[in-house]
Design goal:
With 402 residues, this protein is α/β, with parallel strands linked by helices. Helix content is 42%, strand content 15%. Fe (ii) ion (FE2) binds next to loops.
Length: 402
């Protein structure tokens, strides 16, 4: 029996401080997104626990289906290599990149220089993708669907040349009677909800699998345990997804985990059992800490009115500078004039506020209101999290007394 481990999307934390020149274009939105939300989801302590569990199960080989880093900053690749080396040597660990590993153009160079050995074909004369590694009865065929995309997009693409080479590799390995495992970051098919995160040429990929066959497809990207079957030439092909190896437990989301595939038999009579491993048992205060992270995250959305308030303040400032009424008041005033009720008698006193000093007063008021909101948010945050913090403190005190 051959035991193949499948781990994916570790999104290694913490995010090293990028150089300011790196925070251009898509990396800027990714950086903000990390600090606003993702750093609370992808936890180093969770990944450490999952990695330890994986190593304890002593698989014969480990596959990693991408998204090791977060925004492809130069400083992220070396720690990711150290993590790969903690799993095993490059002979025992196979890697395919994810969209976060090639977040922007030019990131592929980092990928090759730091992780190249983990993505190398058995025949070193073959460079690029797909790579082919033979391990025991297995043929591991690694694809790269990682391409740089526009902000807020996470689509993948294989390209015609890679798909054609995949077909050749599948045929060659079938002739060698190997158990063919295709590794890819993006799932071959996605729901309409994940249209902007799909594999763009998934249809072509599925057509090759339907014609040439494969015994197993392993992927990441969706951050959930999943199993679907694709059409194959003789029998359906199982397509197995793994969750993120670092995500903190959240309601409605799969906890961190990985898959263990136990493969035995021979060509024509293979048997493959996939056992999903979820994060080892959580102690109560771990769950509480995760709740704190989530509470903070939900409170972050409370800052939105502040953001809305700023343009209003800026408009007031511009209004005062030009000594004209704000848009809303101007419209109401002109409507009153056109209705024939002109002059001060037609308007209440507050509507006649057209002087620069009154506009400045309004601007100052907006500024004060925003400042009050700014100060109130952290207090509200603390108040909201207080029960959770209290529970953690109690738990810590209890564990000390044991
Ligand atoms: Fe991911």
């Amino acid at each position: 029996m051959f035991v193949l481990a499948h781990i994916s999307d570790p999104h290694l934390a913490p995010l090293p401080r990028p150089h300011w020149s790196e925070l251009m274009g898509k990396r800027a939105t990714g950086f903000l997104n990390w600090h606003r939300k993702r750093r609370l989801i992808h936890r180093a302590e969770v990944l450490a626990r999952v990695t330890a569990d994986l190593q304890a199960s002593t698989p014969d080989h480990i596959t990693v289906t991408g998204d090791l880093v977060n925004i492809s900053a130069a400083g992220e690749y070396a720690p990711a290599r150290a993590w790969l080396e903690s799993l095993g040597t490059s002979a025992d660990v196979s890697l395919v990149p994810g969209n976060h590993d090639v977040y922007v153009r030019g990131a592929s160079a980092h990928l090759r220089s730091h992780w190249g050995e983990f993505m190398r074909d058995d025949d070193i004369r073959n460079v690029g993708f797909p790579f082919l590694r033979r391990r025991g009865p297995l043929a591991l065929i690694g694809l790269s669907s990682a391409v740089a995309t526009a902000p807020f997009m996470a689509t993948g693409r294989l390209g015609g040349e890679q798909i054609a080479r995949l077909a050749q590799a599948l045929d060659r390995c079938a002739r060698e009677e190997l158990f063919r495992v295709v590794l890819i970051h993006h799932p071959p098919v996605s729901s309409a909800r994940r249209h902007f995160k799909r594999l763009v040429d998934g249809r072509e990929f599925c057509a090759v699998l339907a014609q040439h066959g494969a015994e197993l497809v392993l992927h990441g990207h969706d951050h959930v345990h999943s199993l679907v079957h694709l059409e194959g030439p003789q029998r359906p092909i199982p397509v197995v997804g793994a969750p993120s190896a670092s995500q903190a437990p959240r309601p409605g989301h799969d906890p961190a985990g990985y898959n263990l595939c136990r493969i035995k038999g021979q060509a024509g009579a293979w048997s493959c059992e996939v056992r999903p491993r979820s994060c080892p048992r959580w102690r109560r205060h771990d769950r509480v800490q995760a709740n704190i992270a989530l509470a903070t995250m939900s409170r972050t959305s409370g800052y939105f009115p502040l953001v809305l308030g700023l343009p209003a303040g800026a408009r007031q400032f511009l209004t005062s500078a030009g000594n004209t009424l704000p848009n809303g008041l101007a419209r109401r005033k002109s409507r009153a004039v056109h209705s024939g009720l002109s002059g001060s008698a037609a308007m209440p006193a507050w509507m006649r506020a057209s002087s620069a000093s009154e506009s400045k007063r309004a601007f100052r008021l907006a500024l004060i209101m925003n400042s009050v909101y700014c100060l109130a948010c952290p207090v509200a945050d603390y108040w909201h999290q207080r029960p959770y913090i209290q529970a953690v403190q109690n738990r810590c005190a209890a564990s000390r007394s044991l």
